[in-house]
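Homework help board

Subject: predicted structure for assignment chain

Our instructor gave us this sequence and asked us to write out the predicted structure in token form, then describe one feature. I got the tokens but I'm not sure how to describe them. Can anyone check?
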Amino acid sequence: MNEVSSTDPVLDAILQSENEVSDVLEQICARTRAETQKRASVKPLKEIAEEAKNKKTPTRGFARVLKEKMAKKQMGLIAECKKASPSAGIIRQEYDPAMIAVQYENAGASCLSVLTESAYFYGNNEDLKVAKEACSLPVLRKDFILEPWQVYESRAIDADCILIIMAALKDQEAAELVELATCLELDVLVEVHNEQELNRALALDVSLIGINNRNLRTLKTDIAVTQALAPLVPPDRIIVSESGLKTFDDIHKVQSIGASAVLVGESLLSQQNAGAAVRNLLGLE
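My token output:
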């Protein structure tokens, strides 16, 4: 785990030392549940549910876009917008999700991922809204979705897809969130990191299986995770390799073992021109 700098408030908040913080995911989820409870006290479940159900604008078909890429044997790129992360700290001091979304779309990204988690990634719901308004790509709400209230909120803020992390949920909890998302016409990307989580995810009625090369408990990345798990995923599912992907060779490597899409953020956002970074990653320059 990276050594924490006292000048970085994101890292200081959660990574005081490797001994003190052994499970980053657990800390984030605890805070997320508390924050969700607080927000639900202001806008009760019934109210946010009505707001979500009354949305007239159809979702953009996040999974459909990736299936079309898969059918053409082209790699789908889910390009991520985020200001910071627990592993990297502040990635962009001047963070403009609308501008980044436009650059991503023009460079050939298939979908967007927008961080809305506030304490550790410095995101918010407005980031998702402005990014979606700026482009025509379908958008994943990248957050720690743990409660039905958050699923309704995701539809209310115009997300097209949500993330469900198997390491953070029990089987019944995950199944209920998937069912609710489906009822709201939201796609679901189910994220796993090991074979046990993969087997649990495959029991869910979802087409998108995200294999996260980053261990959310230690923050270390290893593409070998995708190499180990991808062959275990049935061909009717879409494999999305996530984290630790920095070069065209990395993309080619995971594609050769069955990944049909990748989710990349930090290696794109750390470069001055996010659009040029996308083209380099996809081998278009």
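Reply (TA_rk): Your tokens look well-formed. For the description, you could write something like this. The chain has one domain: 49-281. That's the kind of observation they're looking for.
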